[in-house]
Design a protein that fits this description.
- It comes from Kitasatospora cystarginea.
- By secondary structure, the protein is mostly helical.
- It has helices at residues 63-96, 106-113, 117-138; strands at residues 8-9, 15-16.
- The termini are far apart.
């Protein structure tokens, strides 16, 4: 067994700190020791999949409470969907902006978003309206 205070050489032949007399944090010129990951000796057990749950609605037994909570979630999802649609429209308007050197046509936007070209054109118009409203609100 090597002496605690004697220098130990690593695989590269460089000095590797071995005891408490060495600084804990390597300084300039101190070689950095790289730790290797340990080899797995076994395969981790696959845990059984948890039953699918939807905001714990399955656990609510009172029909009035279930209706209240489900309605609350429905309204929240509708609001989130409307907000996401607004962001889609803004992005479509920005992509179609002719001041951009890489402006896209409504057909190209439709391809990217999996829309019809007519819907993409309407989203571009809606996005332009939202951008104008934002600009007015900033002033």
């Amino acid at each position: 067994m090597p002496d605690r205070h004697s220098p130990v050489s690593g695989q590269s032949g460089q000095h590797v700190p071995s005891g408490p007399t060495e600084p804990a944090v390597p300084g300039p010129g101190t070689p950095v020791r790289r730790l290797r990951p340990a080899h797995l000796l076994f395969e981790p057990q696959a845990s059984e999949p948890e039953p699918e749950r939807f905001f714990d609605l399955e656990a609510i037994e009172d029909p009035s409470e279930l209706l209240r909570r489900a309605t609350e979630l429905t309204l929240a999802f509708r609001a989130a969907a409307e907000r996401a649609t607004d962001f889609q429209a803004i992005a479509a308007a920005q992509l179609a902006d002719t001041r951009r050197f890489d402006a896209l046509s409504p057909a190209e936007i439709a391809d990217q978003a999996d829309w019809t070209p007519d819907y993409a054109a309407r989203m571009v118009e809606y996005g332009q309206t939202l951008l104008k409203q934002q600009a007015v609100g900033e002033h």
